[in-house]
């Protein structure tokens, strides 16, 4: 079992739903911003995207984006990245994410950072990636916290620092980010940035559900844990879920 690469967090940009779901479900799954008080062109873009009229949706978002709408700029960047209604164009995606990121949109900041890290539409630049991940993480955006934590684990763009990685994974995991929950579980099992704690590690692996190799790792961990410890970890996971529901 190894730590995941930054690519594992790329899903925000790449895996957009194409199914005709309810408006909020479809666009939230796509990572789209839904601030319905924006100008008509943005609203039109949202409605057209839900109807899967991607060329017209892109045109509507372009109109709003050119007027400075940060959410439209972000959505248009996604469409260029995923070739929805427009030709795939990483440079255009990078340009629109940049405009949105400059307006402090944490989703755009995170995607911009990933493009810098992976060299999509721009030369690879981990220093720039760290800068933008930090901006989004400071807004408590969990995907940015997770991705920045990965950089502290791998030592790309920053000195390797398991303590900082742990803290970032913890912040994202506490918000229900399955990627971070999985990574935090690994750190507890491996004693990276903290003492080994199999019960706490298993708890986070349980909360990660089917993410990545979490299920396989739980089976592996059970071979070295007592049944009582596994049961305790499962109880802690349920308590965590209950506390989240109470606070939601």
Structure notes:
This protein has 248 residues and is mainly α. The protein is 67% helix and 0% strand. It has 14 helices and no strands. The chain has helices spanning 11-14, 23-30, 40-50, 54-66, 70-82, 90-102, 106-118, 126-137, 142-154, 162-173, 178-190, 198-207, 214-222, 227-247. It is elongated and about 60 Å long.
Task: Give the SSE layout.
Layout: H1 11-14, H2 23-30, H3 40-50, H4 54-66, H5 70-82, H6 90-102, H7 106-118, H8 126-137, H9 142-154, H10 162-173, H11 178-190, H12 198-207, H13 214-222, H14 227-247
What are the salient characteristics of this protein?
67% helix, 248 residues, mainly alpha
What's a concise summary of this model?
By secondary structure, the protein is mainly α. It is built from 14 helices and no strands.
Oligomer: single chain
What profile does the largest beta sheet have? none
Element string (H = helix, E = strand):
HHHHHHHHHHHHHH
Number of helices: 14
Proportion of strand residues: under 5%
- How far do the termini sit from each other? 33 Å
